Amino acid sequence: MMRKRVLCFLPLFICAPAAAEVPCDFKGISIGDRMTPNQVMAKLGVQNFKMNPKMPTFDEFSPIAEKYSRPSASEIEDEEVGPYCVSRSCIIPYGVSIGNNNIPIKLFISFRDSTITEMDISFTQPAWDEVYSIVFHKYQSAWTAETTAINVIDYETKEATRHDRIFVRNTTGGVNQSTHDICEIWGTNIDIVFKHHDSLGPLHSMIVLRLVSKNF
């Protein structure tokens, strides 16, 4: 008798039959696709964005970085600029959402020679369980999950709070069905050790799709 392989997504214990092929896409944009910034923004429904915008000077940036940390200062800067692209990346700090409850996300997309090499999807940490479930059903197959303790620091006050950090990884990776490029898929419920200071809230979760390079 043939056994049907069933895969479980820990720690939520969601199980499903193994998928034939895992995708590498987010909202129809796949790792390995060749796209221009205009095409990427149009696909995501972002009507207004800037190309190579003027960014704050070092003197303008430094006081914010000294107060909130450099990562938080960059996020504050991104929200002030709005959706934009430079030569090798696009950043969409608002205007795109996921899930039944339209969870706001921040999206970072990286390019190399017009090929999409990475997509980082950030969202507020309280939405982790909901997004975690969505991710499993979209990118099925086998996953691993690891939980560790982490201290998250408020850079301004130096106060720290302790959290359980969950790191998950799709063990098979995904495939772009058109280009046959392979991607890694992983995520975490707490992305960095410093509190954020943007519209997504003080704690961010993240899902990452990243190209597996053929340059070896």
Descriptive overview:
There is one protein chain. The chain is of the alpha+beta class and 216 residues long. The protein has one domain. Strands 5, 6, 7, 8, 9, 10, 11, 12, 13 and 14 form a ten-stranded mixed sheet that branches. The protein has a two-stranded antiparallel ribbon with strand order 1-2. The longest helix has 12 residues. The N and C termini lie far apart (43 Å). The relative contact order is 0.20.
Estimate the mean pLDDT confidence.
89
Describe the biggest sheet? Answer: 10 strands, mixed
Distance between the termini: 43 Å
- The number of helical segments is 4
Strand elements, count:
14
Shape: globular
Strand content: 35-45%
Q: H/E element string?
A: EEEEHEHHEEEEHEEEEE
Tell me the structural class. Answer: alpha+beta
Number of domains: 1
Helix content: 10-25%
Q: Segments where pLDDT lies below 50 for 5+ residues? A: 1-19
Cα gyration radius (Å): 18 Å
